[in-house]
Specification:
There is one protein chain. With 711 residues, the protein is α+β, with helices and mostly antiparallel strands. It is built from 26 helices and 20 strands. The longest helix has 19 residues.
Length: 711
């Protein structure tokens, strides 16, 4: 079971050469991590353990000295990582043994997901469970021989002593075990070519959803378990499946889940944004850290849901969450930071929870109404007389119960939030993980585009464009590759498949919102680079690492969707969409082969294949290209998008000279012209001349004609 349910220690920031030298003098110990940029690694830079970063020099040192590697993996917001550091890695006696007998390596799993993939796979194979902190002992060449997660202090020392003793006494047995385990790691999730002809049928998805739905939580949404993780891609798939099948049960489950998350403590009712997950089954007590990737995907989910259902609550969630990201996770240069810690002043959730006396003092006469709305009662009570703000009914039901005007209450609630947000600003803030990851930035870039497409706020599109330009100017290199990480104006670490997959997706979405062909051109170039350096030429699946990277003990493929969609499922979706934009048969073929490789296993555990399910839907329902040319093409695409039709893409231009196959010979002067196309066949154009566009009734009639063609 993953042991990251709380957070204990505020992220330590080390900045400036002069201040760094001063701090080093004040510390009893300083190890090799002091030169790293990762906040997580820097947290361990003054441990008595002689930690090294993962690099060629460290691995050579292990081989030269004939020592086992002790590899410890975590991330800045992992509670049990910090507990283990405090208990074991700050203990001088334990550190002395570790330094004498091992080459000790610290890894930030967010910076080096490739390393994390291998060793978490190893621990899963050895123990049938895994999580963080992740601790492995490996041979000097990196082949693992032992592993686990969190260990109490005494257990930790006994375990590593026993492993080291066994290696010294029985090296051949250890090496044989390492060989077998490494083969298991190499073969795990290595998808081979499915040579059977592709046969995409509804029955596969029906079976997938039928098995999945047996575990739906019909009271609180999501599934019957705790902790509860949002997993936005799951509900994007289910929303689309329910729409195409007209399955009211599935649609209502999606709505229930979205409503309960928005009502719960997992959502910051004052400042906007979602925490990592809920430790209980009803979304009350969050793990208070806020991750960029969760909030990005949830904005995209609520944006699609708002278009589908027009629920005012979803509009509020989109606006407040994007406001939170802009306020607390965005740099002025357009880059997004990674995460906010769960703790401040050494206490979990202290920044976000409230005491009754403080609320009474701030809200005065409004306190009684506020406490009923946000449940300052047994429902909202947490620990140490602190309360988590959460709701258990809609605004309309609450106002009806209290016999108050809903419009007036909305203004009052807005006032409450401003009062508490201003008060909260005076508190000591949670630590900020200020590294910026390309893949997570691309997810948030796309989220701002989705927010724009749902609400029409041009500010959101401006922010997305600025972030897209950041990715091009800072992370995209002259040879066509992307870097993975950025901090202190330094771009570093050769990109992984997730960086390419999500950046390509974001650039496709930017094109769809702007009709600026340069975004589509960048997406194509990145796709071609990815095919060259990541693709398995037989199965057409993609490795997680580039062929230019230093080899690890296994080259993994990421195929299962998790808290972030699998990089392979994202690439398969990208290839499908680009094939539609560019009329590229090879992209289409690659996408189909990848889906065919997966199709026979998707029903086994639907939650792990939801992004593949979205691609599957696009292949079995009619998929439309809506081509719009003319001065008002962007405006018209936004208005058409207000009707929920997920089986479509927009392609268009304000200019006559655009080199896209689907737009050839379709320009009509002094008009905005729309073509609805499917399977390379376009219907007759629907034309609005520039003088007619301002006439609402006529424009509305034309939009209805367009929508009639994409039912």
């Amino acid at each position: 079971m993953i042991k990251c349910f709380k957070l204990l220690i505020v992220v330590i920031f080390i900045t400036g050469c002069n201040s760094e030298s001063k701090k080093m003098k004040e510390k009893k110990y300083t190890n090799s991590l002091i030169n790293e940029t990762s906040p997580y690694l820097l947290q361990h830079a003054h441990n008595p353990v002689q930690w090294y970063p993962w690099n060629k020099e460290t691995l050579k040192k292990a081989k030269d000295e004939g020592k086992l590697l002790l590899i410890s993996i975590g991330y800045s917001a992992c509670h049990w990582c910090h507990v283990m550091e405090h208990e074991s890695f700050q203990d001088e006696n334990i550190a002395e043994y570790m330094n004498k007998n091992f080459i000790n390596i610290k890894v930030d799993r967010e910076e080096r997901p490739d390393i994390d993939q291998i060793y978490i796979n190893a621990v899963q194979l050895m123990t049938q469970s895994a999580g963080w902190p992740l601790n492995c002992i490996a041979l000097p060449d990196g082949r693992p021989i032992w592993g686990g997660t969190y260990f109490p202090k005494d257990t930790w020392l006994k375990q590593i002593q026993a492993v080291n003793k066994f290696y010294i006494e029985s090296p051949n047995d250890v090496i044989n075990y390492a060989d077998n385990l490494s083969r298991g790691i190499q073969e795990s999730e290595l998808i081979k070519l499915n040579e059977k002809p592709i046969n995409l049928i509804w029955e596969d998805l029906d079976k997938m959803v039928s098995i999945w739905s047996q575990n739906f939580d019909t009271i609180n949404g999501n599934t019957k378990k705790s902790p509860k993780f949002p997993l936005p891609n799951n509900y994007q798939f289910l929303m689309r499946y329910g729409h195409f099948k007209n399955d009211k049960k599935i649609i209502e489950h999606v709505k229930l889940t979205l409503n309960k998350m928005a009502y719960g403590g997992i959502y910051d009712q004052i400042g906007g944004g979602f925490s990592r997950y809920s430790v209980d089954s009803y979304w009350k007590v969050p793990h208070f850290e806020k991750m960029l990737y969760d909030n990005a995907q949830l904005v995209s989910l609520y944006s699609e849901a708002y278009i589908a259902f027009k629920t005012p609550l979803y509009k509020t969630i989109i606006k407040e969450t994007l406001d939170f990201v802009e306020r607390e996770l965005m740099n002025e240069n357009g880059v997004f930071y990674s995460a906010l810690d769960a703790d401040s002043e050494g206490e979990e959730g202290k920044f976000y929870t409230w005491k009754k006396e403080d609320l009474k003092d701030i809200l005065k006469n409004d306190y009684d109404l506020f406490k009923d709305y946000y449940n300052i009662n047994e429902l909202g009570e947490w620990e140490n007389e602190n309360y988590i703000l959460l709701k258990n009914k809609s605004d309309s039901d609450f106002c009806k119960e209290k016999k108050i005007n809903q419009t007036e209450f909305k203004e009052k609630n807005k006032k409450w939030k401003n009062l508490l947000l201003n008060k909260r600003k005076n508190r000591i803030r949670p630590g900020l993980d200020d590294k910026s990851l390309t893949s997570w930035n691309a997810l948030m870039c796309e989220a701002f585009v989705d927010g724009y497409m749902a609400l029409g706020e041009t500010k959101y599109l401006d922010i997305a464009i600025k972030n897209g330009q950041f990715l091009i100017n800072k992370q995209l290199k002259n040879d066509g590759r992307l870097n993975h990480s950025y901090k202190n104006n330094i771009s570093s670490i050769n990109g992984y498949l997730e960086d390419y997959a999500f950046t390509i997706s974001a650039f496709i979405r930017l094109y769809e919102a702007t009709f600026n062909i340069e975004w589509l051109n960048k997406a194509k170039k990145l796709t071609d680079y990815t095919i060259k350096h990541f693709q398995n030429k037989t199965s057409k699946m993609f490795y997680f690492t580039s062929d230019l990277d230093d080899a690890l003990i296994a080259r993994k493929m990421e195929t299962r969707d998790n808290v972030i969609p699998a990089s392979n499922s994202e690439m398969a979706n990208n290839l499908f969409l680009l094939s539609q934009y560019l009329d590229d048969k090879i992209y289409f073929e690659y996408s189909d082969i990848m889906l065919n490789n997966i199709k026979d296993i998707i029903y086994e555990y639907g939650s792990s294949y939801s992004n593949w399910g979205i691609l599957y839907l696009n292949r079995i329902v009619p998929f439309y290209q809506i081509a719009i040319l003319g001065l008002n093409s962007n405006k018209l695409s936004w208005e058409i998008n207000r009707k929920y039709n997920p089986n479509k893409l927009f392609v268009g231009s304000k200019n006559k000279d655009v080199n896209l196959p689907i737009l050839e010979y379709k320009w009509i002067d002094k008009a905005t012209t729309t073509y609805v196309c499917k399977n390379k066949v376009c219907q007759m154009p629907i034309i609005l001349d520039d003088n007619q566009y301002s006439k609402k009734e006529l424009k509305s009639k034309k939009i209805d004609e367009i929508l009639e063609l994409i039912k």
